Amino acid sequence: MSEFIHNLTQQLAQWRRMFHSYPELGFTEYLTTYRIGKMLEEWNYSLFVGKEALDSDARVGIPNTTLLTHFEQKAKEHGVEDSWLCKMTGGNTGLVATFDTGRPGKHIALRFDIDALPINESTHQSHIPASEAFNSINSRVMHACGHDGHITIGLGVAKYIYEHQSQLVGKFTFLFQPAEEGGRGALAMTKKGWLAGVDRFYAGHIGIKEMPVGTVAATVKGFLASTKLNVRYHGNASHAGINPEAGKNALLSASSAAIHLYGIPRHSAGTTRVNVGKLEAGIGRNIIPDEAFMEIEVRGETKELNNYMADHAKRIINAAAEMHDTKCEITTVGSTEKMSCSSSIINDIKNACEKSKYVKNVISETSVSGSEDASFMMNEVQKHGGQATYMLFGTKLDYPHHHPSFDFQEEVLPVAVDTFTRIIEQENTYVLNRGR
Amino acid sequence: MSEFIHNLTQQLAQWRRMFHSYPELGFTEYLTTYRIGKMLEEWNYSLFVGKEALDSDARVGIPNTTLLTHFEQKAKEHGVEDSWLCKMTGGNTGLVATFDTGRPGKHIALRFDIDALPINESTHQSHIPASEAFNSINSRVMHACGHDGHITIGLGVAKYIYEHQSQLVGKFTFLFQPAEEGGRGALAMTKKGWLAGVDRFYAGHIGIKEMPVGTVAATVKGFLASTKLNVRYHGNASHAGINPEAGKNALLSASSAAIHLYGIPRHSAGTTRVNVGKLEAGIGRNIIPDEAFMEIEVRGETKELNNYMADHAKRIINAAAEMHDTKCEITTVGSTEKMSCSSSIINDIKNACEKSKYVKNVISETSVSGSEDASFMMNEVQKHGGQATYMLFGTKLDYPHHHPSFDFQEEVLPVAVDTFTRIIEQENTYVLNRGR
Amino acid sequence: MSEFIHNLTQQLAQWRRMFHSYPELGFTEYLTTYRIGKMLEEWNYSLFVGKEALDSDARVGIPNTTLLTHFEQKAKEHGVEDSWLCKMTGGNTGLVATFDTGRPGKHIALRFDIDALPINESTHQSHIPASEAFNSINSRVMHACGHDGHITIGLGVAKYIYEHQSQLVGKFTFLFQPAEEGGRGALAMTKKGWLAGVDRFYAGHIGIKEMPVGTVAATVKGFLASTKLNVRYHGNASHAGINPEAGKNALLSASSAAIHLYGIPRHSAGTTRVNVGKLEAGIGRNIIPDEAFMEIEVRGETKELNNYMADHAKRIINAAAEMHDTKCEITTVGSTEKMSCSSSIINDIKNACEKSKYVKNVISETSVSGSEDASFMMNEVQKHGGQATYMLFGTKLDYPHHHPSFDFQEEVLPVAVDTFTRIIEQENTYVLNRGR
Amino acid sequence: MSEFIHNLTQQLAQWRRMFHSYPELGFTEYLTTYRIGKMLEEWNYSLFVGKEALDSDARVGIPNTTLLTHFEQKAKEHGVEDSWLCKMTGGNTGLVATFDTGRPGKHIALRFDIDALPINESTHQSHIPASEAFNSINSRVMHACGHDGHITIGLGVAKYIYEHQSQLVGKFTFLFQPAEEGGRGALAMTKKGWLAGVDRFYAGHIGIKEMPVGTVAATVKGFLASTKLNVRYHGNASHAGINPEAGKNALLSASSAAIHLYGIPRHSAGTTRVNVGKLEAGIGRNIIPDEAFMEIEVRGETKELNNYMADHAKRIINAAAEMHDTKCEITTVGSTEKMSCSSSIINDIKNACEKSKYVKNVISETSVSGSEDASFMMNEVQKHGGQATYMLFGTKLDYPHHHPSFDFQEEVLPVAVDTFTRIIEQENTYVLNRGR
């Protein structure tokens, strides 16, 4: 396998840079999906694109039509075929690719997230994507969370299976998931049924916890269940000097909601969180504000704690409307579940990587915060008796995730591909003890 | 008439001191009503006591049973006959007394309020009621707004009519009203129908605006319409350390309500007011408070403005319950209407008092703030085409109304009686140009 | 004079359309000032441009450098000479033009405001500026308050004086004021001393109160004193899931401030107002917001009431910073004073317009709300014994002021010029009884 | 030992009932201290009473003079000698009693709290103290937390030492601590230096965690560090209708503080708590409230977390004063520290109780919430190398602690005395293997 990885290394960097230079926001990954799909097609994967891959109605946080149309149009200009666009139009991006060896063996599923972020990428020459000219050509969109790397890793693993199919058994399902940011895409893929009968589920992330290249964490704990809400208040505008009594103040509804949300009582059963991350209200100094918008999230150590927070939050948001006689709309735009990696999987990963030249160190478990919608897939697999884990792949980071100068060491790519393929080799091959 | 006043002056002080020493709170004026009634009975007035005088269901802000029973029991001990108590039991105090001369003439109504306040009277020797030993014998109850004087003035006027009945025409209705404080009693008397067909209505107050004894204001403007609300929030108690999530925080509902009430938008049509005058919540430091109580008032320059404030207030109070998942009860415990004195009456009063030795100066109009439930009666009279006014009778005040050391100059009593009786003489006599 | 107006009418519409098509925001009126100035130069006015016309340090609410540079650059491209730009650079726009007849007579000052608004003008064909192709060529800037008309009227009056100088006496001062919107420019011109020794001051507005073309209000009442504040809160960002305790929440500071600002106690001495017209805070759902921005205004019926509101507002804004451990910056970006038109001026205006064919009806006084910084000039004139008024010129309006489709009837332009010139003729001419 | 306990059982119930019938609030335990002291005096203990026992200046939450004087006077009436009162006057209650065997051995300290609560005891016949006539004779004061039992247990243990002194070694210190409720007395005793050189420290509580009589928990975990604050806001009163602008609203300061206190950010390092348990503000509906009072507590899993909460709380309380232009006073009226029982002590307790007929079951550790100021003493002992624990003694409870009907099974008293004395026997005797 070392030879496969060795030969692939340059290719991995090229793929990564291609995806990096053309980032697309969640549910607008039209060209990204197409490019992934065209390669997998060549490698004889069965493809399920867009509406075939996800339960369209289970998506949340879909961008507005203007944004969707803009990216569809651009994708078309970049050569995405109509037959593909047709399956994706309206924000139904992402794809599922399956490969069946025809031989009995485990059903292994792998998830790679493909969306980018609404961040304006740095053009500073100290930022390698800028100095080496593969930075984003899409204004105010950037792969600032490493999903360009994740796509690349998925393609590397898919190529391995294609090239080593004669030695493999069982079945493989690749989920190239849209809209991980904000926890919006995983549930829609899960609801389509892809995880039924899966024996082993693997996902992962580069970075997050700073570890050197070559270090891999086999499992993580600490991801919180979460719910993301967008809230709009609609009131009445009126002139603040002439007839203030005619106004219904949406800005005050939002302000009341914000203040009271942070006061949701602490819970004796465990960790909870709440944040109003954005508030925008009003258009001018002398007008009673008639519109307000808020981005809110709640989290909990368990599903129950997250629901406790979400229920309180919704009641408070509604009460804040009544407080100022406005109307409110609450939209759930994302969610994640609590995630528990299967600890039984740890030794398997350690064994698989024992002889790797790329993986220097496998840590059993690391602790992170934050939230991940792969949790929906993992919980589905575990519910049906399968095992699932979420790994971290070490890389030095000069800037944190979601920063305009975020970048990672491309050396992490072969490490991750090696980890996934060694696991696959160990779990789903009938040619043991090949020299590596 | 000067002789009548002259002879009565000492009697007025005696009456005032008797009433002062036995103050009763609104709707508990059992002994007060009885004492007034017994005198009027002697003077051949037709009496309507308690439930005969007011629409019992239209009362608001009735004290609790413990308090009612306490004062009924005390009244009994002080000799109030059972036949009287029977008409008043349960907080139906006050009386209406009518005198019909049998001769055609105007129907004149006069209103005198009779209740005291929950204030502990000063026992300092610089306080004349204390040093001259007529201060309150009822602990924590005090005539601190001069209604002891008002009762006295009413009796003086009633005695005048009795003694001068041969010279008078028309009909007279005296309303000795309970529970003026908090705006609780006037509406109940008004709804009983006493003001139908009234041609002239007179009420008044001693003090308020500081003017010297001998100065009378013929009309006042500036009284605001008002609504008084009591609010109770009911939540759930829980241990603040052990399980804060189980609490439903009534203290926070009350706090949210308070803060938002003051933010009711100012109104372009005129003056509005709001106040939370009292807030009591919680029983101990480590318990999530499950009960809260608030005393609230709103005011408006017009009925519409007052309703605007009351409507907003009620919505906010309810929203504050929803905000913290508590229940709330809103009770209207009092109200007043906007009052507009009939300006046509000013010259009549000036003329009537022109030759008085007691009334030195009649001011056409003065401006006050605050609220008065005589407004209900005045509006009723004016609605039917009658004329109404609310006068002020000057007296020096060392301490403001509602102060534990409030007192007034007893010299104001003959001035007020002289004013009322001269008006009556002018309006309702057939013996003109008597020497005075 | 009718002939002068008649001949000028078409010219007025042309001027108006030129100014309409190139609107500039307050303190960026580089081309506007230049165009006005070049005409006045031809008519032998003495010019004081930019820093010569205003006290630069007394300006408030100056746009940021990017915006200033952008408009200066555009002005240059449109041919504004360097010698002019030099006097205006850095947001010192506007000009004062004086004309001295050399003959003894009154000193008359006239003020015309010249700035536009940050509004994107409608391109709908029902909008006359669009269908007749004189709509704004500056994106997101629009003359939506009629100041294009005001400039035009000022030029018309200036031309009249130039052409009739042989018949006139006294002295004339034209203040073409920048940045009236937000109350930012008048004080800076006033402080330069232009109003010292002025006998008569005239300003005015088209529209505001809907009256037909031909109706003029000689005075207005009801403008409130006002103060406009911008507030920025600076806190600390932190991840809302990982370490919420490290955040200092600027969004909550702004929300607390907003809620408490509306609760500034009503004042018994008169009308007060407060509004938070805009609030923007936070950048993403899962980040504790570290920045917040608010646009606030307070108003009062008098200077004292306005100060009462502003003092309370500032204290509350600071307290809201301390409440959440953030820092705040308060910037005063505009203000207006209470304005009282000199009522003695009413009959003069009525007399002057009596024989006009354009002015059909002069109303003595009308009542408006809102605020105007011409108040600074008027108060200065009145303080030194002069008389001042603010007139309204009727025009039908299909959309209110500040609306993207705002437009007015150009027929109001000759009406306004006729009003001003007839006043001038009446006040400052030595050839009486000319046939008109 | 069983015989000692057997013979003492009836006496324990008598003592308990005597103390139950005369409860005294924290820092007013004049008669309680005297009664304890007089018994210990008989048993040859060295006594340190009142100011001798505690650092007077380190007390917090001292009652007002009226209350202190009331209880001192009552104590005098009940026979407390002047020499004793003199040492205790002004709220310096409690005592320390030491017994030195003169033989080398461990220094064992035991703490028993002696104060009662401001609760009106039930007089219902289903409440055993009422039906068996030993309920509180002090109106609105009640032993509702079992400290009457604690005193009794302490006396039982003291008597054991007195009677078995010939078999014992080392030194014994009994701390009969005042004002445990609210965490007010322990620090003052600790600061007097009693814990220096203590090898073993034992404290405990009956009930808390419901366990049957005979079950003992050797250690507890979960007590939070805490700080208790009283807050007073002082503003200005004014008439809410006449001049609301003249008021400075203390009720609103308290309300703002309450709402914002619950919003102190959750802390990633562990459990935190906050509660406003009581709020009282304002005196009348139509007066802007000038006074407000709040009882507040914060808690944290560690000292640092508790300090984090207390620091934020104080800043918020001050900001709420500034918000409404009031003044505030913050008084720390109690505190507790985090408590960690020495786990090494568990087996010692289990061994000591192995053969007891009274102690049926020793649980190693139980988990509770709440806070205890014995933590100050325990931390002091552990800081100097000693070991300390806090035990729980099971009893069935029909009503929770602090309830007007709280009562416990008196059978728990001999269980607790047996536990303490067996530990003492095991640790500090030279006569081993006595038959029991």
UniProtKB/TrEMBL annotation, chains A, B, C, D:
The keyword Nucleotidyltransferase does not apply. Its EC number is 3.5.1.-. The keyword Cytoplasm does not apply. Pfam families: M20_dimer, Peptidase_M20. Residues 229-313 form the Peptidase M20 dimerisation domain. Coiled coil: none annotated. Keywords: Hydrolase, Manganese, Metal-binding. The Mn(2+) ion enhances activity. One of its GO terms (molecular function) is metal ion binding. InterPro entries: Amidohydrolase, Bact_exopeptidase_dim_dom, Peptidase_M20, Peptidase_M20/M20A_hydrolases, Peptidase_M20_dimer. Gene3D superfamilies: Zn peptidases (3.40.630.10). GO terms for cellular component: cytoplasm. It is an enzyme of class 3 (hydrolase). GO terms for biological process: folic acid catabolic process. Mn(2+) binds at residues 145, 147, 181, 205, 402. Its cofactor is Mn(2+). PANTHER family: PEPTIDASE M20, PEPTIDASE M20 DIMERISATION DOMAIN-CONTAINING PROTEIN. This is Indole-3-acetyl-L-aspartic acid hydrolase.
